[in-house]
Amino acid sequence: MNFKYISFLSLMLLLMSFGLPKNIQKKVDKEIKGIFSVETFKFTGVIISSDIKKDLPSKFEEDNLFKIETNDELLGYAYLSQASSKTAQFDYLVLLDKDLVVLKSKVLIYREEYGGEIGSKRWLKQFIGKKGGDTLKYGDNIAAISGATISVRSMTNAMNNLLESLKILHSKNIL
């Protein structure tokens, strides 16, 4: 094989490795359009330095925290991550306004046979209006779901970690 061919393949693999998978991006786009009432928007990743990442309870990678803008105006943020269920992980999305208040949370992909009720709008609406500094507690201000205890606790912990991380990022003027 010649060097140009290998370089070309390497570049293509590198370019394809960025961004969200198409099926996830489609779901995220739909939620953003609905929540922010826009048809077109710019979706750009927020880069957080390694020295700050290490102090955050949530996991931040190159492709899971995004600014949502339209006409050079900040609308809000999107955070995508995974949380554990009994034997797998599920993908979820949290949409935030520009003041870092939760507008919507959504389970994008749930991979278990049981516990899928965690994706219900009724249960997820408990997170709307939450912001950095708020504390969520399973069984107290977060309702239990029979048959989905592990997923509910996991999502509650993930949201607590995100809210704490957002508070830290805001205090450091990153968001």
TrEMBL record:
GO molecular function, one term: FMN binding
Residues annotated as domain FMN-binding: 85-166
Residue stretches spanning the membrane: none
GO cellular component, as recorded: membrane
Record-given protein name: FMN-binding protein
